[in-house]
Specification:
The structure is a single chain. With 311 residues, this protein is α+β, with helices and mostly antiparallel strands. The chain has a single domain (2-310), classed as Beta-lactamase (3-Layer(aba) Sandwich). It has ten helices and 14 strands. Strands 1, 6, 7, 9 and 10 form a five-stranded antiparallel β-sheet that branches.
Length: 311
């Protein structure tokens, strides 16, 4: 079962379609496919004649980039090609690689001891069976490391083969400065750049399965053995706690070596609470000193870009 963000629920109310939770999902599907049509037209942005410069706060982030999807026009950046520890942003190339294998989403698999690497995890016992779909949502929506590792293990490529395919996929997208060594992002040897991650995120959020998992506020995971339902929550607070932005997709990441990372594809919201198409941005923030700081920086960058550019 899917639950949507507060912005999406707000939109449902405005259209008087809030009889059941199915209504916001209907709206989401309409916006997904309508958005895909509109996104197929390349956007271009020009800076306004009276534009004000973006002024970063002290120690706000280590690296950052704001780009227009499809055209890859850079609207603001700071050290976009400098290497940075990817942390759980690694789960995006994982997801992109996995969906391209056309998995059987209803197939049940069991957690194994090798999936456990610490950090954020789906708190289940070894041997617990779960569908591939719920495993996927656990990896993207709640950033569960054991779920991400299990995806690689059951991919049919072998764990090592899956990691190799992740790197091939990244290079194919132009993310030539990135290197991934595991499926979850727990290793500090997973390396990316702001520009590379923007390219990876753009490709990932074009995939319906990834986009949906990355824009779902809450999700109910159905464990097959033992039979139990768990509710997982999205780690992206701009999705779950912010009315001002429409999050097309997003992913968070943290390691001590990287600090707080965030990538989002985002649209502005109109005064009546509807997303405004034609102004999509991809914002990557790497190395923010606090979790809230990563969200604040991404929002500030997006709003500055919309306020100071014509689309």
């Amino acid at each position: 079962m899917l639950f949507v963000s507060i912005a999406q629920i707000k939109y449902a109310k405005l259209t008087e379609l809030t009889g059941t939770m199915k209504c916001p999902m209907f709206i989401r599907l309409c916006l997904v496919f309508g958005g895909l049509f509109l996104a197929s037209m390349a956007q271009a942005a020009t800076i306004k004649v009276d534009a004000e410069p973006f002024v970063p706060k002290a120690n706000e982030f280590a690296k950052v980039i704001v780009i227009v999807p499809k055209t890859h026009q850079v609207l603001w950046s700071f050290k976009p090609d400098y290497s940075h520890v990817a942390a759980s942003l690694t789960k995006l190339p994982n997801a992109l690689t996995f969906v391209k294998l056309s998995p059987r989403w209803d197939r049940k698999v069991a957690f194994q001891k090798s999936d456990e690497v610490g950090g954020g995890r789906l708190r289940v016992k070894i041997g617990t069976r779960i569908s591939i779909r719920d495993l996927f949502y656990s990896s993207i929506t709640s950033s569960a490391n054991n779920a991400a590792n299990a995806l690689a293990r059951v991919s049919g490529l072998g764990y090592g083969g899956f990691i190799k395919r992740m790197n091939v996929e990244a290079k194919r997208l132009g993310a030539v400065r990135s290197k991934f060594v595991d499926a979850s992002g727990m290793s500090p040897r997973n390396i990316t750049t702001a520009r590379d991650m923007a390219l990876i995120a753009e490709a990932a959020f074009r995939e319906l399965m990834i986009r949906t998992a990355a824009s779902t506020g809450e999700y109910q995971v159905a464990l097959a053995t033992p039979r139990e339902v768990r509710t997982i929550k999205n780690t992206n607070q701009l999705l779950t706690q912010d009315n001002d932005l429409w999050i097309v997709g997003g992913k968070t990441g943290y390691l001590e070596e990287s600090m707080y990372n965030l990538v989002i594809q985002v649209r502005p919201m109109n005064a009546d609470g509807r997303p405004e198409f034609g102004k999509d941005l991809i914002v990557v923030v790497l190395g923010a000193p606090t979790k809230s700081g990563s969200f604040d920086a991404a929002k500030r960058l997006a709003e500055w870009t919309w306020n100071n550019h014509e689309f």
